[in-house]
Amino acid sequence: MVKFLHCADLHLDSPFASKRYLNPTILKDVENSAYESFKNIIDLALREEVDFVIISGDLFDQHNRTLKAEVFLKSQFERLQKEQIFVYIVHGNHDPLSDEIKTKWPENVTVFSNQVETYQAITKTGETVHLHGFSYEKRESYENKIDAYPTNENRNVVHIGVLHGTYSKSEASDRYTEFRLEDLNAKLYHYWALGHIHLRQQLSDLPEIHYPGNIQGRHFKEQGEKGCLIVEGDHVALKTRFVPTQFIRFESATLETEDISQQALFELIQDFKARVRHQGRAFYRLQLNIRGDEMISPQVLEQLKVLSTEYEENERHFVLIDEWDIRYIDIRQKSIIQEFPAELLEQDDVYERAVKDLYMNPKASKYLESYQQHDRKALVARAEAIIEAELKGGN
After folding, report:
1. What is the distance, to the nearest Å, from the Cα of residue 197 to the centroid of all Cα atoms in its chain?
2. Would you say residue 10 has pLDDT above 60?
3. Do residue 66 and residue 215 come from a single domain?
4. Domain boundary among 222, 244, 266
């Protein structure tokens, strides 16, 4: 019997440049969110008394590898060491191996080199488990090393493949170490512990092939619960279960109203926050559907945004409306978006030209997250709503 924890894509010290406007107390929570989530993961590993923990790449976030992150990880690994729980790590495209980095981890930690290696783990019940994997040597790793993974010749012993890479049928833009399911199946392993794709997904149940997703959402493209997988079983069958560990969630919600008075709108938002607060700290992208012919004035909307954030720093679980999408669903007028060909709004170069000047500005760019992280459709919808409001005000 083997029991282990599988996580990936910690991205410690990932920058939250677009959140600098937040209250300092809440901003601190945001900046520490990945740390808190990983601490929850270690707490879980200890409670579950797992045999080992697998981290499938991207512990750090590119150039933001700080001493704080290394000291934190070392302290968490030492907690596991006291209970004789081992850690197996592969480095990914955001934290490749480097001769300049000489981190000394506790003795219970094994880091795979830039070549495919095999390690043996002994479970608490005395069974042997084989783990196979490799770490990225550089950020842009397009080399396919799947062929170097040894084929399992003993189906009575659990074999686990650890891989930071891109499933061939995924929509990921950074297609590092791309693989096909046939490639993994051919190795006859019992479990593939994947990393790199931040959306939790199961690619196969025989064998078990899983992306656990990243451990903490960072924007609205990474919505919902985040955490890790607990895997338990033997060479005959393995069972997995997801355990959420996120410190903060990114979510979307929709509200409807006919009353657009400032007081009514404020109460609508407050009631919504009261309903969801028990679910934990969260940022929301709110779609507000307005029924009727009247439109919210820009002044009222701005006051509503300010009022909705007041006193949230005093709450144990803050709930912030971070993005607003105002829609007038009964207004009988042609959508501004319909004036443009659909394919025009999908063209990358049109979008890139629109944001180029802003991102090329050295004073502004340092506060911006990568434009690739933005939801393009949401941006277009928000722009349409702003234009409609301005046109209405001009009448």
Report:
1. 9
2. yes
3. yes
4. 244
